[in-house]
Amino acid sequence: MKIKLTNVFHNTETYVLTKDGNLSARQVKKAKKRLCPYRDCKCSGSLGTRGSYIDGFICHDGTAKLNVIGTL
Ligand SMILES: [Zn+2]
Predict the structure, then answer these.
(1) Total domains in the fold of the chain
(2) Quick one: residue 69, left, alpha or beta (phi over 0 = left, psi -120 to 50 = alpha)?
(3) Is the pTM of this model over 0.85?
(4) CA of 44 to the centre of ligand 1 (A)
C-alpha cells in the first residue's frame, strides 16, 4: 500500500510503499529528508512527520514500524 506522510511545519509530503507497515532504513532516511531536510531542525520525530496521521517507531537498526494514529 501507498502511505502518505506529511509534515505541516514545512508543508511537505511524501509517499512510502509498504506491504506490512514496516519501512526499511533507506525508506526512513528518504522520507525524513523529503519531509524535513534540515538536520538541526526539531520540528518532527525520527520519521520526519508532523501533524500526520501516520507516525513511526524507529528501531535500533534504522528500520521503522508505521503507526496509524488516525484516518485520512
Ligand atoms: Zn523541520
Answers:
(1) 1
(2) alpha
(3) no
(4) 6
Higher pLDDT, 7 or 52: 7
- For residue 55, report the distance from its CA to the centre of ligand 1, in Å: 15
Find, among 45, 42, 39, 37, the residue nearest to 12 by Cα: 37
Cβ within 8 Å of residue 30, ≥6 positions away: 14
pLDDT tens profile 16-59: 999 988 999 999 999 999 999 998 999 998 889 998 778 778 89
Structural domain including 29 reads 2-68
The helix or strand, by DSSP H or E, that contains position 16, with its residue range, turns out to be: strand 12-17
Distance 33 CA to ligand 1 centre (A): 9
Count CA within 13 A, CB hemisphere, residue 68. Answer: 8
